[in-house]
Amino acid sequence: MANVTVIGAQWGDEGKGKIVDWLAARAGAVVRFQGGHNAGHTLVVGNTTYKLSLLPSGIVTGTLSLIGNGVVLDPWALMGEIERLESQGVSITPENFGIADNCPLILPVHTQLDVMREAAAGKGKIGTTGRGIGPAYEDKVGRRAIRVCDLAHLDELEPQLDRLCAHHDALRAGFGEAPVDRAALLDELKGIAPFVLQYAQPVWRRLNEAKKAGTRILFEGAQGVLLDVDHGTYPFVTSSNTVSGTVASGSGLGPGSAGFVLGIVKAYTTRVGSGPFPTELEDEVGQRLGERGHEFGTVTSRKRRCGWFDAVLVRQTCAISGVTGIALTKIDVLDGFETIKICTGYKLDGEVIDYLPSNAQDQARIEPVYEEMDGWDGTTVGARSWADLPAQAIKYIRRIEELIECPVASVSTSPERDDTILVRDPFAD
Ligand code: GDP
Ligand code: IMO
Ligand code: MG
After folding, report:
1. Contacts from 74-79 at CB under 8 Å and sequence distance 24+?
2. Atom of ligand 2 nearest to the CA of 300
3. What residues sit around ligand 3, an ion, with C-beta below 5 angstroms?
4. Among 223, 270, 301, which is best to mutate for testing ligand 2, by the most ligand atoms less than 8 A from CB?
5. Above pLDDT 70, what percent of the chain?
6. Apex CA 246: angle with CA 424 and CA 298, to 5°?
7. Atom 11 of ligand 1 has which residue's CA nearest to it?
8. Distance CA 123, CA 18 (A)
9. 283-309 pLDDT per residue, tens
């Protein structure tokens, strides 16, 4: 099956949106399968920049775009995003956009709880996007979520509201907050229901029909493997599984549906929010990476932390997620550096290890072991073939391939959709 799954192989913001948009024209459907509007995916097409958080990036090319059940959906954020995209000339209709009717909703109580917890945690905060993602997933697993399909039966919502409010009222009391205003919540849900329901459908059915018809499906991951709730730098992670395997449970297609797993990998490393970051550079080199790469969060505008490429982490995330090939992005940001470092191992208690330990304290203590390479003269900006790249840049890419034990399928050389070198077509596999 010629499906493609795009996932982030670092801490998010690797350039997934650009790559999904680039592949979308050749897909029959683009599907989000986890996360929510904590994601911020940027697409640059000519003079226009699109920023998507909840809508699958395929919507810009008009490709059928579906939100799977694994996503947590804030209906008001969705409405705002659709209005914003429509004002940029993107058409979003029930013909080209659908939402799984078994998607759990992010409600105002979730956002409030997220923000209250982070404020109370002080220095120990996770540095979340404050969008209610964690609390919404907790309620899903705790079996008290309100889901998209419930919006069609709001008159029968009492027992679910009881369960949800009993839980939240106890938590809110701990923060000195008033109980949930149930009447106001119900009113808000009544107000938004018709808007959401026009797109609601059993997405698993739509996808299985597409599969029977031989449609190519492009899965769009959010965040990155190092933010995965199991495999990431726990507890400094998001609250969903971001690995490729989530495609099956988060969309309703079987485990064989992922197809070619394309890991998106930035040519250096960034992270937003708290948590360990072995190759972080808090000096002028890190500053320069941030400036050249415009490393400010798409969602929260926070400055992203920057550091050298960490081959240990990417080898690990590619293995964990079964990555078939990587799309290397932002190589152009390294133009002009005299020397470039790559992390090839960690020192922990006098020993060198070649993987990231699971324990948070060990993760914070490890020290990177680097190898150094010469940088390159000239520019990679806008290169669309290997011939356009300086020889030393090719050497850097080849060394990355070798260290992460995974081939490069494409190299991205600017934010612009078509500034990409294709090495191996993921849809052709
Ligand atoms: P995502 O969350 O993985 O989709 O990534 P973001 O959109 O949050 O962040 C990636 C940023 O890098 C965006 O501003 C992109 O426009 C930009 N970008 C993507 N690929 C490249 C590239 O190859 N070179 C440069 N300079 N910028 C890129
Ligand atoms: P995209 O899809 C980068 C980070 C937050 C925080 C942690 C938990 O654009 O790559 P959450 O709000 O999810 O509970 O926050 O995860 N985070 C991201 N970092 N890119 C993202 O998405 C992220 N989504 C969440 O900064 O550290
Ligand atoms: Mg992003």
Report:
1. 74/36, 74/37, 74/105, 74/106, 74/111, 74/131, 74/132, 75/105, 75/192, 75/195, 75/196, 76/192, 77/37, 77/53, 77/106, 77/131, 78/37, 78/54, 78/196, 79/192, 79/195
2. 26
3. 13, 40, 298
4. 223
5. 100
6. 75
7. 15
8. 34
9. 999 999 999 999 998 777 889 999 999
Closest CA to 250 of 25, 5, 27, 37: 5
> Counting ligands in written order, which one lies closest to the CA of residue 14?
1
**Pairwise CA distance, residues 147 & 309, whole Å:** 40
Q: Model-level pTM?
A: 0.97
The pLDDT tens digits of the residues spanning 49-96 come to 999 999 999 999 999 999 999 999 999 999 999 999 999 999 999 999
Ligand 1: does its nearest atom lie under 6 Å from the Cβ of 8?
yes
Residue of the CA atom closest to atom 14 of ligand 1: 42
| Token code pair at residue 7 | 């996932």
> Is the pLDDT reported for residue 429 higher than 80?
no
Ligand nearest to the CA of 295: 1
Residue 1 confidence (pLDDT) above 80: no
Report phi then psi at 249, rounded to 5.
-75, -25
Mean pLDDT, to the nearest integer, of 253-257? 92
In this predicted model, what pLDDT tens digit does every residue of 214-232 receive, in sequence order?
999 999 999 999 999 999 9
| Cβ(24)–Cβ(59) below 8 Å | no
Which residue has the least CA distance to atom 25 on ligand 2? 38
What is the 415 CA–ligand 1 centroid distance (Å)? 6
Q: Is the CB of 7 under 6 A from ligand 2?
A: no
Which residues 6+ apart lie within 8 Å of 43 measured at CB?
A: 17, 18, 21, 49, 50, 51, 52, 57, 60, 417
Q: What number of residues does the chain have?
A: 429
Query: Ligand 2 within 6 A of 113 CB?
Result: no
Among 253, 179, 262, 181, CA closest to 215: 253
